[in-house]
Design a protein that fits this description.
The chain contains 20 helices and no strands. By secondary structure, it is mainly α. It has one domain.
């Protein structure tokens, strides 16, 4: 792995240096890819919100909280099992059959090992939560970890070919089918098993469709010449991103420990709404590594693209997040029931966290491009530490609202990303600052105004 002081090198699928004016065909291609991914995430928001509405209405807070507890633990392990190898394949110059076979073996081995270790840790989780209700869905979802993890290989093949239209179609089809299955079982009063079955069907269909489109036979092989660079790059990337994913465990592990399944459900709903509305930033982050890699030899263009993307994200996400802060008190009771109103107390904090994250999400991608993944790891580690510690300290004193304050306090860790990028491509926030401040203020003032008027 390169050190942080090494000069940046091209990490895109092609290694030829080109001048900025020659980027137009690539920009057109990535522009179309961004449109497809943005459309995918936009439609995914609709499907995800529909799924959330069905689940929260038909199975109730307790069963939904059990599912969130189980999937929160399992989803983290499924992402860890990829070991950053899928991203390595995307940025590699010319991966051959041996590289894909080695990647398959490494991911499958990691998936099985993590799944067995997590199953063996079940008694510890039972002791931590003080009940066994989550265990059956937890074990079923654990069995699906290899399915979810192996999907990264054919998806990497499609991303290398800039087949974002196919990727969007595959992901939407799998998500939609999962929603249909979950909704049908929820209507049949299957309880927690409705979202569990929907999740498993979603992952299976996505794997099958992606493998078919990528013509990937999943050959098993192992070549040390491929395994070494995969793991060398993947350890830094995985450590950074998986440290970030640890934040998803704060709700099921800490909130669940102190407040129970219902509290987990309320926090999860607020987070799910905020992140669904802010999911367009995921499309931007997904495109950033491929796009910025082509521009890293031209620092001025590199910086300019980042500033434009940051501004676009904030002015797009801010109105969406504020609109739900205004409409949520009317929408939630009618669509989900008055029992879900505690989620609206958490929503402004979760939405503010998503908005602030959108400012630093692309900057973190830029640091990945130039090989500074360890610096991103430090920032994410500080973020998770602040989120977890603040939640533990404040939750017994303030109740669920403590998680909201923890979200805001944890945003302070993003300054490490800002300072890390400043030495290479300093970002100006002059244009962005008033918009960001106005939207964050709106998220909190709108609910307060509603309360005073009520």
């Amino acid at each position: 792995m390169r050190s942080q002081t090494d000069a940046p090198v091209l990490s895109s699928p092609t290694d030829a240096a080109v001048d900025v004016n020659a980027h137009s065909p690539f920009c057109r291609e990535t522009g179309r890819g961004a449109i497809y991914l943005a459309a995918r995430y936009g439609l995914g928001v609709i499907i995800g919100v529909g799924n959330m509405l069905v689940m929260t209405w038909w199975i109730g807070p307790h069963a939904y909280g059990l599912f969130v507890t189980a999937i929160g633990l399992v989803a983290f392990l499924a992402v860890v099992a990829r070991c950053g190898i899928d991203t390595y394949l995307v940025r590699s110059k010319t991966p051959d059959v041996g590289a894909y076979g080695t990647a398959t073996s490494l991911i499958l081995g990691a998936s099985l090992g993590l799944g067995l270790a997590a199953a063996a840790a079940t008694p510890l989780l039972v002791h931590w939560y003080g009940n066994r209700e989550f265990v059956p869905p937890y074990l079923v979802l654990l069995a699906a970890i290899p399915v979810s993890a192996l999907t990264g290989i054919p998806m990497a093949m499609l991303e290398r070919g800039l087949e974002f239209r196919r990727i969007a179609g595959i992901e939407l089809a799998g998500q939609s089918l999962g929603l249909v299955v979950a909704a049908l079982l929820a209507w049949l009063k299957a309880g927690v098993w409705a979202p569990v079955a929907g999740q498993v069907v979603w992952q299976l269909c996505t794997l099958i469709a992606a493998s078919s489109c990528a013509a990937n036979p999943f050959r098993l092989s192992f070549e040390l010449k491929h395994a070494r660079p995969m793991l060398s790059y993947g350890i830094g990337l995985t450590a950074s991103l998986r440290i970030w994913q640890l934040r998803t465990l704060v709700n099921p592990v800490i909130v669940g420990r102190f407040v129970g399944a219902e509290g987990v459900a309320y926090v999860a709903l607020a987070i799910r709404i905020a992140e669904s509305l802010g999911s367009f930033r995921l499309a931007a982050g997904r495109m950033a590594i491929a796009a910025l890699a082509r521009l890293q030899d031209d620092r001025e263009e590199f910086r300019g693209m980042l500033e434009r993307a940051l501004y676009l994200q904030v002015v797009t996400l801010g109105p969406l997040l504020c609109a739900f802060a205004l409409l949520g008190p009317y929408v939630v009771p009618h669509l989900m029931g008055t029992g879900w109103m505690p989620s609206m107390r958490i929503y402004p904090f979760a939405a503010a966290g998503v908005l602030v994250n959108s400012v630093y999400n692309l900057q973190a991608s830029a640091l990945f491009v130039v090989g500074k993944q360890w610096l991103v790891l430090q920032a994410y580690l500080a973020h998770v530490f602040l989120l977890a510690i603040t939640t533990v300290v404040l939750l017994p004193r303030l109740g669920l609202i403590a998680y909201g304050w923890a979200e805001l306090i944890a945003c302070g860790a993003y300054c490490l990303i800002h300072f890390g990028l400043a030495g290479m491509a300093p970002i100006s926030y002059q244009r962005l600052r008033p918009w960001l401040a106005g939207f964050v203020a709106g998220l909190f003032l709108v609910p307060i105004s509603y309360t005073l008027l009520a």
